[in-house]
Amino acid sequence: MTSAQVDNGQADGGEAVDAPAGEGYQRGLGARQIQMIAIGGAIGTGLFLGAGKAIDRAGPSLILAYAIAGLVIFFIMRALGELLMYRPVSGSFSEYAREFLGPFFGFVTGWTYWLFWVVTGITEVTAAATYMTYWWDIPQWLSALVFTIILYGANLISVKLFGELEFWFSMVKVTAIVGMILICAGVLTIGFSDAGDTATVANLWNDGGFFPEGIGGTLMTLQIVMFAFLAVELVGVTAGESKDPKTVLPKAINTVPWRIAVFYVGALIMILSVVPWSTFKPGVSPFVAAFEEMGLGIGAAIVNFVVLTAALSSCNSGMYSTGRMLRDLALNGQGPKAFTKLTRNGLPLAGTTFSAALMLVGVWINYQWPGEAFNYVVSFATISGMWAWIMILICQIRFRAKADRGELPQSTFKAPGAPFSSWFALAFIGLVIVMMAIDEDARISLYCAPLWGLILGVSYLVLKARNPDNTAFAKR
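and the corresponding structure tokens:
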């Protein structure tokens, strides 16, 4: 065993060994992969499917909702970028919460983000199995099992393979949206397809105006809009395994504005110009509906493939991030010691395996008892994902204050407009939470949060009582 392998917590032959305080990961993610992970994180089933419900609620004003929310996401990502350039580590959210807010917040953030991806992985792999029935009449549980095993295996081979899978998953999603935009542009300019005679930019305001359901209708879509952006922060988890994080991560983060402008705002402008907003219905992908209105029946099969890809991409990301978050917690004495171990390839075997096993259990439960109890758990994904954003913003505010006082070195990638931009983003997230409380369909998410908080609070006190000398539970 070489000294480098000892330092990295690795052993020959692929066996797992205890890792020291250092992270020990291999930097196997290149610029091409990080860029596509960043792009893919902003494009998921929230856009391909969830936008149908949002259009029905808000009409064309949904475009404005995505634009404003996109600005907030950019503020969040630049806040994250400032922290990453200060200290690029895997499991960054809990690490920063631990440093700037204390061990309890690091504990809560790490376990909450882990739960977010486990729940998301459960729902996405189940959704992927459902999409498979579009082509073949095969048992849902079988597809879910196969997908989970394949993605689990890929995550245990190397981080580079994970990056390659995400690259191609993201490429499919990007190609689909760009293709839709080009087709819609052709309909608007040349007038081909069944929608050619009625396609016009005036559709954005002709049918009841730009705010057909009023400002209130637009505000009520904010939780749907923000849900669509969940996982954009995943690029922060890759920091410990990026080949050149100081160069690659800022470039990836700075692409956020044009990604949102093209893939969300641009796509919606084109679709709603070609097809009147009142045509779209909840539960139906606006992409499928647009293809059908244009008389392009093959569009349904194409979109089904793209949504399948988006679901598998999300599950793949979940397996990747859960193992890293569990290892970060374990390294700080806030999780089982077994999760600190790495394979020869620098992969967190125990944490990834544990998370994948829970995803399989969740798929089985969802298949056997798709009732309200499971829905309560699934609904928690939105609020738990936003918790990570809140922690990023608060930690950036604390970091900037310390850096300005000379207590910490200044970041080489400062967030523009901070700390005011971070306070604005926090206020916006607060508004979204208020809208969730008002909306009966989304309110269920808030019911789960106090229960999870109670579980974490009790667990933290128990761990602290059992380990009174552990510095992980002492304020720095």
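(Above: one complete record from the training split.) The CA atoms of residues 334 and 463 lie 7 Å apart.
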